[in-house]
Amino acid sequence: MKCPHCNVEIACRTKVCPLCHVPFNNVEGKLDEARKLPRAFPHKGRAPMFSTTIFDKVYLATALYLAILAIVVEFVLTAKVQGAFLVIAALFYIYFSIRFTIQNYGYFSQKVLAQTLMLTLVAIIGRKVLPRPLFIYEYLLPCLYMAAMLVISIYILIRHKHPQKYLLNLLSIALLGMLPIIVLRFTDSEFQLLSLLTASLGAFIILITLISSYGKIKQELIRLFHT
Ligand SMILES: [Zn+2]
User: Could you read off the pLDDT of 153-165 as tens digits, one per residue?
Assistant: First the structure.
């Protein structure tokens, strides 16, 4: 089809002439005509969120078998089933770890955030096995969040050209860093130093990022939630 204004040949789907930029506005039915043309770029469909691969099927079947085995073995040996929680949590962790960080092409900081969230879940599920459940809020989670914050901060410092992608993930982990101290406040825990340090580091990072890159964070939020 030809542009009614400049007569250039148009080969792909468009609403304006690629040469003279005049919109077709359905002059002589040109808009309808242009809509029927093939796309300039092949349409890249979204990958379905819950597609199952062979890996999923094999893994889930194996995991189910191992989970039942863990429950049965522990029940027979100790008449309890709490240790099996840890096995089940580990099985979940390995699955999501492979599925959403190894098999996924995300940004480095997204992978760190995903790992942090998954390890948090594992720790919360697995705390029943510990002799002192508070241990996860006193030691495990504070160390995890501090390590994650430091890793992303160092990464940003090394590759600081376009930090937008990393800042939101860093902020999420910094906010998560408040969790241990909040939980411990409602318990009789005697060791709150590590969780306090983590919360301070989180607050420091939130403050620094907001002061230094408020505009970039706003841009990134708009980009993420603007459809
Ligand atoms: Zn034209």
Answer: 888 888 767 777 7
Alpha carbon of 12 to ligand 1 centroid (Å): 13
Element (H, E) at 123: helix 108-126
pTM of the predicted structure, to 2 decimals: 0.61
Q: Residue 159 has which token pair? A: 């590759």
Whole-number Å distance, alpha carbon 44 to ligand 1 midpoint, is 28
Contact at 8 Å (CB) between 199 and 178? yes
Give the torsion sign (CA, 146, 149, 152, 155).
negative
Residue 61 and residue 126 share a domain: no
Domain end among 60, 75, 105: 105
| Claim to verify: residue 112 and residue 100 sit in the same structural domain | no
Distance 32 CA to ligand 1 centre (A): 16
**Tens digits of residue pLDDT in 17-52:** 888 888 888 777 888 888 888 887 766 555 555 567
Q: Are 90 and 62 in contact (CB under 8 A)?
A: no
